[in-house]
Amino acid sequence: MVLVSLISINALAENSTNRIVAIVDKGVILQSQLDEQVKQTYQRLPVEQRSSITRSDIEKRVLDRMIMTELQLQIGRRSSIKISDKEIEDSINHIASANKLSPKEFLEVLKNDGVTLKSFKNSIRDQMLVRRVQSSYVHHEVKISEQEVKSFLNLLEQSEGDQATEYHLGHILIATPENASPQQITKARNKAADIIARLKKGEKFSTLSITHSDASNALEGGDLGWMKLAQMPSLLTPYVEKMQANEFSDAIQSPSGFHVIQLFETRGQQKVMVTKTHVRHILIKINALISDQIAQERLLNLKQRIENGEDFAALARAHSEDRGSAIAGGDLKWVEPGSLVPAFETAMNQLAINEISTPVQSQFGWHLIQVLGRKQQDNTQLMREAQARSQLQKRKADAAIEAWLTKLRDDAYIEYRI
Asked: Which of 291, 337, 358, 371 is deepest in the core (most CB within 10 A)?
């Protein structure tokens, strides 16, 4: 079979005006294909570099890259890995969107660059197939342990030094005298509340500081400058840690009076805050006997019973078809954004605390949802760990792919005819 393939290849080389420049196992690379890749490589070079780089400087490297691509494409074909037309269209639309172009405008750019839509689609298909092959043969073998992540983060902290987040704060003080009377405290509290109300209406913090603050930096707009948590008064730290940029605090009482602070911005390590929701539900599934209408009617009846005083948890245990949560009275505990199906999460996010939804449909059936609480959670450390794991994964995968490609080339039959 190998002999027949080589005979066919030689016949193609002799009979075709399109010369073969390389034989790669049972495949070939043609001169026209090489010319196209060299052309595209030149197009990606900065204009000022093109005149100083000759074709011979890049032709061999381009051909070597094409050979490695062809070897992986052959594996993909033998493995029957398929890339659908829709995946290719989605990829092209994504590229167009990333370049802030409509699909039609992007096709016009390709045409102006002398690239046909057919050749571009083939290029996209080949790239996606190569990635799929690498994922199948290499990526799944790359494992990252928790200890590796921990060691990597420790190493980063040591190399970065003291790079903790810095906070740019504004501060307004409504002072109270030493041994203030209840009346003086009430007056100061009311003044602080009035300032917060005016901030909510959009008045500038610096203006309110200049006109109302008793702090020493009032004329500077209450600007405390940049500081780390360890550098700021311990009274403010618990509030600043929970604040987002441009957010201001409620009135903070201390022996010196009432403080209002605003976090203008942060720099350095950014905090990632997420809202966790404590939620429970009752699920009615759809089947041959239970239609959408019947499921909704059952849930509306259960909602009426709850509003009349019956216990949600007891009804969930008796009626919910989500057996995993039904045992706990329908309780899904505290959930993070993205952990539930979109239809459920969208409805959940629109509910007030303790409010019960109307029936909500998802791919699992119909739900009656109740939100029991919400809280902010700092996910910065989780994000850092995820980023560290991703970096380690890429390092290991790159090394594993390099070793795999070297072996792939060593085991292949490659003949240059350039």
From this structure: 371
